[in-house]
Design goal:
Blueprint: H1 3-9, E1 13-17, E2 23-27, E3 31-35, H2 50-72, E4 79-89, E5 104-115, H3 120-131, E6 146-147, E7 156-165, E8 171-177, E9 180-185, E10 191-197, E11 203-205, E12 207-213, H4 220-223, H5 226-231, H6 239-245, H7 256-272, E13 275-283, H8 291-302, E14 308-314, H9 325-333, E15 339-342, H10 350-367, E16 370-375, H11 385-395, E17 402-406, H12 415-428, E18 430-434, H13 445-450, E19 455-457, H14 474-484, H15 490-498, H16 502-507, E20 523-525, H17 531-537, E21 543-546, E22 549-553
Parallel strand pairs: 7-10, 12-13, 13-14, 14-15, 15-16, 16-17, 17-18, 18-19
Antiparallel strand pairs: 1-2, 2-3, 4-5, 6-10, 7-8, 8-9, 11-20, 20-21, 21-22
């Protein structure tokens, strides 16, 4: 730019005060812009604030510089996006004093995205120019965590995630030491072994899957479509018979040689998608024996340090229907199963269903285990095994230690019956897991949430006798539930996220599963800033962190090849 052009570009700026704190800036006598303070600074918020205009000017300079660098290197690109945010320091805390204007810009965060088909050399051109600046630290390659030498001690952190956008809208740094959050706030001066720049993208807790039939994953080709057809019919009328007859046929061929690789595949998908807690139902009965249980327990040891798995000893074919299943379930609790399972609605009578529930809760009381059951899983309003479970939990001192999965029949109850059940479940501390994508009926989720019950969403199945899809992706489950349950507003989307993170953890009795100092640092850094985009795309998180260690990373890339 010549000296004459530079002088033209820097013509005088005259600012005129307007009403309250607003003002009008006239640039060079030609262009004008209104400036106002935000409402929290006692302005009217009718125009950009001064800090916003500073960022706008800086962003315009960066965008223009990028275009100039591209032309200097004889190439071009479609467009560039420059995203800027800043942090300010105030000398005092508390409410803003009307006379206080001593604000200082502490940090400006810049994220630049260039859109277009660029070669590797062209992508590096702006960086090469940037490295020439005196005193500049060379950054890590784009999209990679930066490892720096850190000092342990008061400020030494193992991991820092900068510019993390939390669900409440705050943009913070997350500092982790020895697997736990040591800092949620400013971390400018803190050194760390690993540093990730989230770039203002959404960061959430890792996901919790409260209902997964882990021994059956990828068995649909063996099972055929009989159970799938019956289970997904309008009223699920034939579901009971299909479970006992069609779906159970696979278990005659149970063998660790194929169960183990299937389970590994499902758990790899879990880690990639940020699912770090799983409640896994494993069939234990006279057909399957302990074959599936031993396979799942073996893989659980392999994945220790990646996924926490609560294993449920699950008598899929019933206890009264399948004599010998109770003994096998009790045996399974010895080598490593954590939870007593049940499926009382599948028994032949209400009396047998009650005996089924009583057996499970008595065993849980005796062993100190939790209890988890599939309840009322058909379109029959006469099914009442959820209430049986809640009452038995109270009788056996299991308050807060039980989970009811499905409960589809509850959606067909008359309102007075629903209200009675809600009050009973609240008293018992009974949590619920709904899987509305795997069947035509579902729990009345909204009513249960409105009444303060703990409700989670679960994957349930991955390509087995009851559901042909599934990727162990709870964002995908939440996306499907948004449509099935009608959870579409911003507030509903926040509830969906809660049902696969914090509230889901509460259902399983997992404490401290939220981004807060002192809690275990299990988190996901997503590709987008807004929750609606994260749900829409339901992509694997950019980074998955377990106890302060990056355990998975994924990149989403695509390119349109336009004709010349």
């Amino acid at each position: 730019m010549t000296e004459q052009n530079l002088a033209s570009a820097n013509r005088d700026v005259v600012v005129h005060s307007l009403q309250n704190f607003a003002s009008l800036a006239v640039v060079g006598g030609e262009h004008s812009v209104v400036i106002d303070e935000p409402r929290e600074f006692e302005g009217d918020g009718v125009a950009p604030n001064p800090f916003g205009l500073v960022l706008s000017a800086l962003g315009g300079c960066i965008a223009g510089t990028l275009r100039g660098v591209a032309r200097q290197h004889d190439f071009d690109y479609d467009r560039a996006t420059v995203r800027l945010s800043l942090r300010v320091n105030r000398p005092t805390g508390g409410p803003l004093d009307p006379g206080e204007r001593a604000l200082r810009i502490a940090r400006i965060i810049v994220r630049v995205t260039v859109h277009g088909a660029l070669s590797a050399d062209q992508q590096q051109a702006p960086r090469a120019r940037r490295r020439d600046l005196p005193g500049r630290q060379h950054p890590a390659p784009r999209g990679q965590p930066r490892r720096v030498g850190g000092v342990r001690g008061m400020s030494g952190l193992d991991l820092v995630v900068d510019n993390a956008r939390l669900v409440d809208g705050r943009v913070v740094s997350l500092g982790v030491r020895e697997g736990r959050y040591a800092l949620v706030g400013e971390a400018d001066a803190a050194e760390a072994g690993t540093r990730i720049d989230a770039g203002g993208r959404l960061v959430t807790e890792s996901f919790v899957n409260g209902h997964m039939h882990l021994d059956k994953v990828y068995t649909l080709p063996m099972a055929g479509d009989g159970a799938l057809t019956a289970y997904t019919s309008d009223d699920m009328g034939a579901a009971m018979r299909s479970i006992v007859e069609d779906a159970s046929a696979v278990k005659r061929h149970y063998d660790r040689s194929w169960i183990v690789p299937n389970v590994r595949r499902a758990l790899d998908r879990a880690v990639t998608h940020g699912v770090l807690h799983v409640q896994a139902f494993v069939d234990v009965d006279t057909t399957a024996g302990l074959e599936g249980m031993e396979a799942v327990l073996a893989v659980r040891e392999e994945y220790r340090g990646l996924v926490d798995i609560q294993v449920v000893a699950f008598p899929q074919d019933g206890l009264l229907r399948d004599e010998g299943a109770a003994r096998l379930c009790e045996e399974a609790l010895g080598p490593g199963a954590d939870v007593v399972g049940g499926i009382p609605w599948i028994e032949a009578s209400d009396r047998d269903a009650l005996r089924h529930v009583e057996w499970a809760c008595a065993l849980a009381e005796r062993t100190g285990a939790r209890v988890a059951m599939l309840v009322d899983d058909a379109g029959d309003p006469s099914l009442r095994t959820t209430a049986m479970l809640a009452e038995a939990m109270l009788d056996h001192g299991l308050r807060g230690r039980g989970v009811a999965c499905h409960g589809r029949a509850i959606g067909t109850y008359p309102l007075p019956s629903v209200i009675r059940l809600v009050d009973l479940a609240r008293t018992a501390g009974l949590g619920f897991v709904s899987d509305p994508h795997t069947g035509p009926l579902h729990l009345p989720v909204r009513r249960f949430l409105d009444d303060g019950l703990a409700v989670a969403l679960g994957q349930d199945d991955i390509e087995d006798a009851y559901y042909p899809f599934g990727r162990h992706n709870l964002l995908e489950v939440a996306f499907l539930a948004a449509h099935t349950l009608g959870f579409l507003t911003d507030a509903d989307q926040a509830r969906l996220l809660d049902m696969i993170t914090r509230r889901a953890a509460r259902v399983l009795g997992i404490e401290g599963h939220e981004i807060a100092e002192g809690n275990v640092a299990n988190l996901c850094v997503h590709h987008d800033e807004r929750l609606v985009d994260v749900l829409r795309e339901h992509a694997p998180p950019r980074w998955v962190v377990r106890a302060g260690r990056v355990v998975a990373e994924s990149e989403v890339t695509s390119r349109i090849l336009r004709p010349h």
